[in-house]
Each structure stands twice: as structure tokens, then as C-alpha cells.
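Bug: C-alpha cell stream looks shifted between consecutive jobs. Job 1:
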Amino acid sequence: MNSTRKMNIRRINNEKQEDTCDLIIEEVPLELFVNYDFYAALMCTAVEVRELAIGFLFCEGILSSINSIKSIEEKYENRICIVLAHEVIMDSTNVSAITSGCGNGSVHIKSLEEGSIKSIEHNCKFAIVDILKLMNEFNSKSELFRQTGGVHSCCICNDNSLLLFSEDMGRHNALDKVIGKALMVNMGLADKLVMTTGRISSDIIIKVAKAGIQLIASHSAPTSLAINIAKAANITIIGFARGSRMNIYCNEDRII
């Protein structure tokens, strides 16, 4: 599936008008099945769909590791089926909140009500100069953004290099993709940080907590609920990381 499409547009620059072509990001529905039963439809950029499906199901609590997967079947262009080595009982009483932002960010209300988000035990140290350097590299990496201006990016890093990178029209999807990639290569995430181009909302922090990542940085802003959840889960939030500056919103002891 293509991630972009050329479309005719009219471009206006001051008083000058011209008919031209522009490269537009493709938005498609991806139907996700678990053990041949329909589970969700994700509006996404249709690249790295296996990684998206795995990361999404991991963050949903449907699978615990890559070893939970028996097979992955893509029989149709916009449909993927994850067959697990165990049965899944669909909970029809589990209420999903409709989240802010683009894409499909599923947050189960029970995760918040039951306090099932575990606190991160690791407390690695990260240097300000390294984080800003990584953010600068990260911001210049997205080819799709340069072409279309229509995607979010996400990256898993160690303290000195970008390790796994993904992009999607949805910020939730981009995060699911890099988490899925990490699972597929059995990468440990306890000593890693994640970078995103998107707003850090409560559902993003819940995904980060479930992946066991202790720091998230963005050049955008966090929400108040995201900060409160991060405090409880011992996750460091950095926002507005641009150039030589950043805001640290919670758990600043990790930053040196």
C-alpha cells in the first residue's frame, strides 16, 4: 500500500495563483482481527502495519510479548489478523474512551479507575545535552513529513543514538509502531527513552507506561492528566524540547 498520493490543488502565494500537484498523505482504515474475530479498525498510514498491529495489541493488553503470536496473516490489502497462541475473551463491558488527537488512541477507562498502571522501577540518568542532540536528529529524520507535512513521528532512543523510528498520520499509531518494532526484535526498553512529535496526552503516557519506558520527550506540550499519570508511574515528561531549551514537567531527577 502506498503512503502518499499526488493530487491536484490550487496554490495561492500573495496574489499569485497556480494549479499544481501536491503530495498528500494516504489515510486508510486497517481492520485488525484477533484469532479471526474483529477487534478494531485503525485509521492509519498503511506502512509497517504488522508493527502497528503488534504494538497496538500489546498496549491494549491483548498480548504480552512477541512469543504470544502464533501467526500474522495479511490476506487482504487493508486487513490483518493476529493469531495468538492463547484464547482471548473479548470484554464487552470494557468501555473505551474516545481520545483526543488523530488516529485511533484507545484508552480503557478501567486502566485509570483500577490503577493498573505499574510504576517504572528503573531510574537511568539522561543528560540535557544528549536529549537535545537526539531531538535535533529526530526532527530532521522524517522524509514523509518533509514531503507532505501530514504525519507524526516517534523514535526509541538510547542515551546517544536513534534506534527505532516510525511515522504515521496518527501520533498514537506512530508510538504503537515503534513499540511493535521493539517487540519484534526483542529490544529491552527499560533503559530507553521515546521521542514524539505529537502532544503528550494521557493515552500516550499509558502506552509508554505499559511498554516500561521511563522518559518521553516531545517538541509539543503535555496535558495535565498525562503529567498526573506520569508522576504516579514514575515517568519523566519533557516538552517543548527545541534548539537549546526544554521544559521538564515531572520526575526531573533523571535529568542531568
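Job 2, same session, no restart:
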Amino acid sequence: MGKCHHHPGGNNVPSSFFRRMILDALRCGGGGRGHKKRSPPDQPPPRSECEYKKPPGSDNKLSDLLRLSELSEDNEEEEDIGRKMQMLEELKRVVKCLQSSDSSCVLDGAKEVRRLTKDDSQARTNLALLGAIPPLISLLDDSQDSVSHIASLYALLNLAIANDPNKAAIVKSGAIHKMLKLVTEFPNPEVAEAVVANFLGLSALDSNKPIIGSSGAIAFLVKTLKNVDNNTNNSCQEDSLRALYNLSISPLNVFPILETDLIQYIMSKLGDMDVSERILSILCNVVSVAAEARKAINSVPDAFSMLIDVLSWADAPGCQEKASYILMVMAHKSYGDRQAMIEAGVASALLELTLLGSTLAQKRASRILECLRVDKGKQVSENYGGGGGGMSAAISAPQASTTYSSTVQLKDRMEDAMMSEEKKAVKQLVQQSLQNNMKRIVKRANLPHEFLPSDHLKTLTASSTSKSVPF
């Protein structure tokens, strides 16, 4: 059993210490529930070791420990409340700086907002509630200093991180048009990069997508994407592409996208594994909305060859699934696109994908193949069954008195009409081989001449698809 200890408590002692002291006191002074051996009536019950060592006044000490523990917890709560009040006062001071008429104070306030909201979600909410957003947006057009512009843009960017109400409030305050005006009137790579980052964050909210798309931001993002590809960093290129993907999710933004040359540009970049999946995601979003989007894809030279090549990227199943979706939609919508796919060699790639692709890619590949098969069947039916007159009338309503030989002849003519030149040549070689084999067998057996193949046998062998000879 542990010995009982008394510690001169104080308000600064950690609460864990008091809990440990209370447990020790309970072990020594508290009653146990274990089975106790009964003593004879004439003897007093045995006393435990702790009871012998229990000092006088231990009950008072236990109550003191409990009181100290409660005081310590109250102090911790008071300290937490004190910290929150101190932070709130600091946030109020920052907002007051933003609303000041002193430009240097406003700049310091914007920098403080950026710092305070970098990792603190509660600060983002509180600053927005205190009114930090309007002065930050006003700073975009009240100043001609790029340092102030960059500070304001990144402050707004941090305010919008994982905070949908702030995203909506920034867009409703007219920030998008001010940002576009800023990059037009004060061209600066750092400012443009900050604007792109803001468009990426703000476009993540669905209600913002149509507003940003109709503002002219798509043309700016496409222009930035193409310029970045030539001279500046990859992070801005990635942000531009991701922002365009966010905007392409809204059907209302498909036509603004088609007004640019984005489709043609990203198709030319298909094959770069760093951006290919994002490119295919954009194409998936636009191809199912408008026929103009499908025409834009089809207008790119070797577009189907490039998409079919993606189907063989076994190490990129996401790309395979997206490419198969694009091909599936285009095959379903257009006969001309189906023919272009067949000419580009889509069949073998689809067959391989149905065997080796992911579950989703296999399903989509099977649908494309079914679409191509049904289309081919319709074409055959139109060519040989629906042309009106001629063979169609003879085949569709045979007379009951038609003889066996005439039926065979009709079947031959139908098969010949539906058979390609290559298959005809193969069939002719098979027929000649069967007849030559029969002649050699008869000659070796010294059979009479009447056992040579008759005309009727030749007819049967000509119409038979089996290698066995029907006697």
C-alpha cells in the first residue's frame, strides 16, 4: 500500500498533481469493497495497515486537495478566457488599422490579417465579422502601390481558406472585377500570381462559379496559363489550370470557355503527366454539356489518336477512366466521331482496356464497343436489308414451295453480299481445298468414277462452314 503524503498546496500547482494526491488519499482513507473475513463476536475487527497509519485530520486534508483542484481548473478556464479576450482585442486593433486614413497603418493592418489568418480558422471568422473584408477590397483600387496590392490579395486569400461564408462575402463585395482591373492596369507577375491564387480559392464555392466565369476571369486564366508556360513558375500554372477546372464544373461556364482557345491549347499539352489528368477532367466537364465542345475537340488534329493513346496508360488509371468517358460521350453523340475513332484504331485499345483497366474504365470501354457494334449492325442492315427491292424482297418473304437447293442458293447469295472480298477469297480457297482432297481420296481408293464429287456435293460443300464433308 502506498503511504499517505501531504503536500503544501498552492494555486500554481498543476491539477494533475492534485488528482494524484486525491487517489493516494482515497487508497489510504477510503473503504474497500473486497471480501472481509468475519471476526469472532468477542474480538474487535482487524484494522488495515493504512488505518493504523492514517494521521488525524486526514478527512480535512482530502477536502483541501479537492478545493485546490477546483481552484486550479477555474484558473485554467480564466486563463483561456483571458487569452481569447486578448486575441479579440488584437483583432479589433487590426480592423481599426484597416479602417484608418493613414495608408501605412492600412498596409500594416493588411499584413497583420495575412499573418493572423494563416493557420487560425477562428481568426478568419472573427475578422470577417469585425468588418475586415470591405477595407481590404477597397485597398485594391485605392492604392497604386503593388506592395499594398499584394498584401491585400494575400490577406483576402487567407481569409477565404476553408471558409465558405468568407468566400461568398468576398465575391459579393465586388472583389473579382477589382482584381481583373488590377491586373489590367498594373501588370505585375507577383500581383497576377496572387490574383490567380484568389480565383482558385474563390472558385471552389459553387455559388461563386457562375459569377467568376461571367466576369472575364476565364480569359485571364487562359492567358496566364499560356504565358506561364513560357517563362514563370509551375505553381502559377497549376493554380490557373485548377481554377479553370473549378469553373468548368458549372455548365454556365462552358460557353465562356469555348470563346477562348483553351480546348485546343490543353489538347496540345496532353501527354504531360503532371497536368494530363487535370486536362482530361476539364474535357470531361465540357464534352457532356455542348456539341460545340465536342466539335472543338474533334477539330484538333489527331485528337482521337491522342485520346486513344491515353487508354494504354496502365500506370494512370484516372487518366484512362477520363479518356474513356470523353470517347464514350462523343461516340454516343456523333456518327462521324464514331467513324473517326474506328479509323484511329480505337477497337483494339478498348478491348485491351476491358481486360486490364479499372472497373470503371472497363465499364466505359464496354459501352463504347457496344455503341460501335450496334452502329455497325445498323449499317449492314441498311446496306443489305433496307435498300428496297432486289435481294431484300427475295429474302424477306420466301415462298413455301421453295426447294432445298434454291434456299441454299439464296443463302449463298446473301452471304456473298454481306461478305468482304477478303472473306470471299478465304472461302474460295477452302472450297478448292475440300474438292481437291475428295478427288485424292477417291483416286487412292480406286473407287468408280461415280464416287467423284457430284454437283450436289459441290453445292453442299460450298455452302458449308465446317471442314467436315457431309455425305
